[in-house]
Amino acid sequence: QIQLVESGGGLVQAGVSLRLSCTGSGRTFSRYNVGWFRLVPGKEREFVAEIRWNGYARYGDFVKGRFTVSRDHAKNSAYLQMNSLNAGDTAVYYCAAGTNTSGQFDYWGQGTQVTVSS
Fold it and tell me: Residue 103: its pLDDT value, please?
């Protein structure tokens, strides 16, 4: 079992960049796929990006090249670099971890708020 802690959220102006971090506990974190999701009250949870244990990355359709996901195995961390932020990106961002074996994200962080003012 692992625990995830997100950080890096905040209040920013439209057009700027922000980097979110997700740090996982446990020595096996590098074996997990890490996903990023976001949630806006009243809307369904939205897939943002995923980086798998082997570095393969994929993104939600809305990203359109603005976000980049990465990870550092030595630091047990994954990152979501968000550029050209707009008001529509305002949400609580969560990271999650899972394995190919389970086929789903089994562990979730507490979320970090990102607010973009226009």
Answer: 80
